[in-house]
Amino acid sequence: MKFSVTVTLKKDVLDPQGTVVQNTLVDMGMNNLKSIRQGKHFEIEVNENNQANAVKKVDEMCKKLLVNSIIEDYKINKI
Amino acid sequence: MKSSVIVFPGSNCDRDVAVALEKMQFKNQMVWHKETKLPQSDLIVVPGGFSYGDYLRSGAIAGKSLIIDEVIKAANSGCLILGICNGFQILTETGLLKGTLLRNKNLRFINKDIHIKVLNNDTKFTNKYNNEQILKINIAHNEGNYFTNSNHLEELKKEKLIAFKYCNETGDINDDSNPNGSLENIAGIFNSNKNILGMMPHPERMVDEVLSNKDGVNLFSSLLK
Q1: Tell me, what's the ipTM?
Q2: Do the beta carbons of residue B195 and residue B110 sit within 8 Å?
C-alpha cells in the first residue's frame, strides 16, 4: 500500500524559502500569486493489506522521525 | 573530570572540542554513534558539524542514533550535556532541549565572529563568567534561528534558562545584533535542571590566543569545579 506524506511549516512559523520563491515568481510577472509555503513530500510504501493499520504505521513514522511537530504539520494521503 | 565526545558521520568539530577539553585537563574519550554503551562520564559533548549531511532536518537522523538512548539516560540521571551548534540541533531533536533551530532568516550560511552576552552565570556551565559579560565568539551555521512556543519562552525567562543572547560589541541586544533571526536573540539555552546546555556559538574555537581569543575557556573551566 502506497501513501504520500506532505510536510509543511505551521502557519505561524516563518518560511523564508517560501517567501523568496514567492517574491521571485511575483518578479517574473505572476501577479495573481497570493501566497506560497514550501514543504516536503514523501512517498511511502508499506507491507500491509489493511488500510487502517497501514495509515497507523505511516502516522507513527511521521510522529517519530519525518515531522518535527513543533514547527511542522503533515497530511497523509493514499496514492 | 571525564568527558565523552559523541562522533557522528559528518561531525566536524569533534576533534576541535576534544583538543579544547584536553587542554583544560579533561580526560576525554571519543564515542562512535553506533556504540550502545557510554564510558563513565561527567560531561558528554554533542559536537558541531553536519551529521548525516543535515538530511531530513539538521540533527534529525543523529537524534535517533543508537548512542543517543544512552545520552538521554545519562542526561536524565544528571550528567552534564553540552551540545554545540549541530549538537544543539541534535539535542532539540531528541527532546532533551525544547524548541528547534530553523533556517537562518537571511537564508545564508553564516560563519563569523559575533558577540554574545552571558545571561545566567549561576550554572555549572557559566560560573566562571560574570553576568552580562560580553564574549566574542565564532558562529558557523545555516540553521541557528531558535524558535519555541510562547509558553516555553515564558518558562525560559522566568527560570533563567537563557544562557546567552546575541548582542553587539557594546552589549546591545536588538535586531541589528541578531545574526540569524533567532527568537529574542537567543544563542543558547539550558534545560529546566540546568544540566544540559545547547548553544549555536562555538566555545571550542575560542580557547587559544594564537587562533582566536580565549573567550570560550571559562565555559570549560566552569565545568571543572
Answers
A1: 0.78
A2: no
